Amino acid sequence: MEKAVRPASWFLLYVLVFFYAQHYFAYDYFYAEQFEFFRFSRDYALETICQWGGLASYLSAFLVQFFVIPGVGAAVAAGLFVAVAWEWRCIWKKLASSDALFSFYLLPSLWLLWVGTDFNYYWSCAIGLWIALWLLRLCLSIPSAKWRLLGMAVLFLPGYYALGPWMLLSALGVILAGLCSRHWMFGGLLLWCILGICIFHYAGAVAEGRFLWTLDAYYCPKLAFPAAGWYLVAVCLLNMVLALGLPRGIRMRGMWTWLSPFVQCALLVFICYKGTPQFYSVQNGIAKQLDYYARTGQWQKILDLPGLRADANLMHACYQNLALAELDRLGDDLLHYRQCGSRGLVLPWNRSHASSTLLSDVYYCMGNMALAQEMAFEGMVVSKNGLTPRLLLRLVQTNLIYGYDAVAEKYIRLLEDTWAYASEASHYRQFLHHPERLEADAELGGRKRCMEKTGGVTNDHQVMENLLQIMRSNPSWRPAHQYYGAICLLNKDKEGIANFLEKYGEAPALHPMPQAFQEAVILVHEKEEEVWSNYGVSPEVATRFKAYRQAVLATRNDRNAVRKLQREFGDTYWFYYMFMR
C-alpha cells in the first residue's frame, strides 16, 4: 500500500507547487528567460561548459529558454522542487533510515523557489544543488566508508568545476558521515577539498576568490548572494545535521503516527504564508509583469493592470504612456489616466537594465533610432550575461534602419541559433540588402523616414530637440507629435503648446487633432473662440469647455470646489492645468 501511495503523494506535491509558482511567480519566469541566452551552437556549448560551473549554467540556460511559453517556468520550478526534495529524502533514508520528518527535506526546495524570483539570480543554482545532492546520494550508497570517501575524492574536482560551490555541500556531507563513522580518511578528503579550492583559486578559474567558497557565483557577479539564499544554505546544513544526528530508523509512535503529518503540513503552509511576502517583492513582480506585457505588445493589459501606480511611480507612468502611444491614444487619453508629470513620459535613465530597456522601447516608439540603439547597448552592458534577445532584436531593427546590414546580420545569426527567436530573426533577414523592402515595411520604413532630417550628437537630455527633428523629417509620424505635445501639456508650458500648435497643427500626424490637444488649444486661445475650429477643436469639446467654465464660476466660493470639478472634469486638460501639480 505504501509503495502505491508514494508516487501519488509526490505527484500531488508537484501539482500543488506548480499552481503555487504559477500564481505568484509566473512573470518572474518570463523575466528570467531574457537573461539566459541559450544557443544551439557548438561554440556556445564549448564556451559555456568549459567555464567554472559551466555544466550547471549550460543545463539551466537550456531549460530557461522554454520559459517564454506560459506555464513552462512554473512546471520546471515545480520539477526542480520535487527533484531536490526527493534527493534529500533519499539522503535521509541513507543516513537515518527514515523520512518521518518530511518537512525538513522540503524546506530547501521551498527557499529555492523564493530565491528564484530575484532579479539577479542564476538558475544554475537550482541545477547545481540538484546534481550535487545526487552525487552525494551516490557516494552515500557505497557501503564501505573508505570507498565512499575515495569516491567523493574522485568526484570532487570535476564536480566542483562543473557545478560550482554546491559541490562543497556534497563533500561536506561525506566528510560528516565519515566523521560520524570515525573513519580517519575523512581528514584526507577535507584536505583534498581545501587543496582543490586553492588550485582553482591560483589557476584563476574565476574572477574573484569569494565565488569559490560562497554561493555568490549563483548570483549577479557584481553583487553578493541575497539573505534568502543563505537561508537555503542554513536549511541544507540543518538537513545534513539532523539526518546524521537522529537515531537510525526513527519512527513516530502512538497518536504521532497520524498527527505528525498534519502538524508538518500546517507548519509548511504557515511558512509559505509568512515567507512569500517576506522574500518575494510585489513591486518587483509588477515591474516584471509590465516588462512582459511591453515585450509581447499587450498594451491594453498594461493600462488595465490593477497595481499600476502611474501617479506615484515614474516607471509605471512611463509604461502606461508608452502603451497609450503604441495604441495611438496618447493625445486623446493622456489625462484619462493618472500622471506624475512629464518625467512619466520619458523616464530618467538610472543606468539599470530595466530603465535602459524601457527607454529603448520609448525612443523606438518616438522614432528616435539613435537613443533607442544607445539604450539597447546600455541595457546589454548591465545585463547578467551581456546578451538579451529582446535588446538584440532592437539592435537588428536599428541597424537595418541605419543601413548597417553587416552589423544587423551579425545579430541575426546569433538569434537564428536560438529556439524562441529564430523566426523573428528570419523575418528581419529579408530586409538585408533590400532597401526597397525596408521602405515599404510599416514598422521599419516609417521609422527610417523619421531620420531624414536628423543629425548631430544627441543624448537623453535632448529629447525635445530630437522630437522636433523627427517631426520635421516625417510629419506623418504620430508618436513623435503626440509625445512632444504631451510633454508640453504635462509641463504646463503654455508658450511651448502655442508654438507647437502653430507650427505643427497642420501636420498630417495631428489630423484629427487629439482630444487633449484640442483642450490645450482652447486654453491657449480662450478668448479667440473663432480660431478654435481652425485648429480642429470639435463642437463637443467646445461645449464641454463652456460647461467647465460655468462650473468653475458656480463653485468659486465652495470649499469642495476641486472635488466637485474633479468628478465631472478631472480628465480634462483645463482641470489639470488649474489644479494638478
Describe this protein's structure:
- With 581 residues, this protein is mainly alpha-helical.
- It contains 30 helices and no strands.
- Helix 1 (2-33) packs across helix 13 (282-296), helix 2 (42-49) packs across helix 3 (54-64) and helix 26 crosses helix 27.
- Mean pLDDT is 89; it is low at 1-5.
Number of beta strands: 0
Largest sheet geometry: none
Sequence stretches where pLDDT stays below 50 over 5 or more residues: 1-5
Please give the share of residues in helix: 55-70%
**How would you describe the shape?**
elongated
What's the helix count? 30
**If you compute it from the alpha carbons, what radius of gyration comes out, rounded to the nearest whole angstrom?**
30 Å
Q: Calculate the mean pLDDT score and round it.
A: 89
What is the N-to-C succession of helices and strands?
HHHHHHHHHHHHHHHHHHHHHHHHHHHHHH
Strand content: under 5%
Q: Give the N-to-C terminal Cα separation.
A: 70 Å
Summing up helix and strand content along with how strands pair, one would put the structural category as mainly alpha
